[in-house]
């Protein structure tokens, strides 16, 4: 009970030292917290671009693999054919007046190439590139056309096809 009788309190110097130490600890904690938040946001943005590219690649492959008509073109039209093309940072699919956007604005380019293999079969090679800040992500994939042979080699920014 002896310590309760001492009611001196803290001196001004002790109080200043405690506040200074508390400020330093809070500043360090604040720095680590915002570093973590920034790193998380950068990782999330990169993940979104990679997701868009992977999804578009998968859907393009499924769409054109069994096509019965394939032609590379510069523009789309409402003529009963399916079109896959790049427009304003997105990859889009069009069938007549119905336009579906497959990505979320992070795509920079989409190109298609038709290659004829020595056995006469055809492969469509496509390349998708996307960017987030200074990081560029791209994928190149080849799709064997199961129902078509003898197409001439070609390279254009959009593909026109008919599904079976």
Average pLDDT score: 89
Helix/strand structural class = alpha+beta
**Gyration radius, to the nearest Å?**
29 Å
Fraction of residues in β-strands: 35-45%
- Biggest sheet, spatial arrangement of strands: 1-9-2-3-4
Strand runs, count: 9
Quaternary structure of the protein? single chain
Low-confidence stretches: none
N- and C-termini, Cα separation: 93 Å
Shape: rod-shaped
Give the number of helices: 2
The share of residues in helices is 25-40%
Q: Largest sheet at a glance?
A: 5 strands, antiparallel
H/E element string?
Answer: HHEEEEEEEEE
Please explain how this structure is put together:
The chain has 164 residues and is of the alpha+beta class. 35% of the residues lie in helices and 40% in strands. The chain has two helices and nine strands. It has a five-stranded antiparallel sheet with strand order 1-9-2-3-4, covered by helices on one side. β5 and β6 form a beta hairpin. The longest helix is centred in the N-terminal third of the chain and has 53 residues, at 12-64. It is rod-shaped, with a radius of gyration of 29 Å. The model has no long low-confidence stretch (mean pLDDT 89).
